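With this grant's support, we have settled on a layout for protein records. An illustrative entry appears below exactly as we store it:
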Amino acid sequence: MTGALEGVRILDCTQIIAGPLAASLLSEMGADVVKVEPLEGEPWRLQAEILPKESRAFITQNRGKRDIAINFKHPEAAAARDALIRWADVLITNYRPGVPEELHIDYESAKAVKPDIIYCENTAFGKEGPDSHRRGYDIVAQAMSGVITSNPHIRDDLPAIVAFAPADIVTGVALAWAISAALFHKERTGEGQAINSSLLHTSLFLQAGARQIVALDEEKRLERLAALSAARERGASMAEIYEERRKATPELAGNIYYRPYQTKDGYLVLGALGPGPRARFRAALDVHDPRYGEGFEPTPERLREVGAQLTAECEAKFREKTNDEWLEYLGERDIACGPVRFVDELFDNPQVVANEYLADYEHPLFGTIRSPAPIVRMSATPTRINRSSPTLGEHTDEILRLVGLDDRQIERLRSADIVR
């Protein structure tokens, strides 16, 4: 059985995380992916190298691809560049607006070479607006979108970033999803199209705070904005700002239903969402939450008082038993819960092993690599890791021959330092 995208050809002109991840996901569905890099290698290769021009981050985001190292900026690279575009069904880029145009790999340039090309462009902040040409990474999108301040925790009076690059990762998955839909559209109509995404847009999508019922929420939002402006003007610390915002939303105080707890010998988390699960949780811990009773007055002061009492009561109860005792007890009462783990513990975890969530494959420099298997499985068109991440320029000659260049042309490009 072959993958669903067998025969689809992807030209991956991207760097760092979101774009490379999207192309790698498509390779796991059978697509033939060619990664284009500058002669020195893309920045992610050079970030915390473990061998020259090889990093853990690059290996993770670029498995399943062949690699060509070519200088698109050189005028004599034009013929090879256009041959690569003609070969491709999909072209993916993730430069700042204006850079694809300089390299002649923007949508209009690509469409002139391959009229039915599917062109996928990811930027940091979108192609329009005052921030469109700013350089940006996931951490900047987190800051500019509010993700960084949606986390209620601070460290040394600084907002705490989400370390695993959520905007990049979700954007990569979304791009693979959109490209798959565009390929289906092309199959039916013969038409290519342009796909556009940004880290800022994804970051907004990720947050519950980005959803507003205008008739109910706008006034409260404006009040929070006024308080935030006043706090900044007087030089308030981040801790003070966070505390003021918590006071403005007292209904969030006393969250006993969806949070981590410390036990006698470790930590666990539980989630009780909805009236039924929350009632089961209260019964399991034998706690009374007056917020769910008749006659409760939800004033800010009363909400804070009750919330503090409930939090202290539940935290004390959880410290009375071990993790295993609580997991068994809560599980018997159909309450969602689980132990807090570190990723190092997952490689031998029985649940991960039983479901084959990790897979081994071979890398030409590092030998066996064990990492997460493709994140979806398909019965008729199986997903698989088709190859490791490529070394820089590993397939340059092979790819150039594939798109129609002969050995003499390839040697001319190499002699002129256009390809590696």
Residues 254-355 form a domain with the formyl-coa transferase, domain 3 fold (CATH 3.30.1540.10). The mean pLDDT is 94. The first strand starts at residue 9 and ends at 13. The chain is about 40% helix and 15% strand.
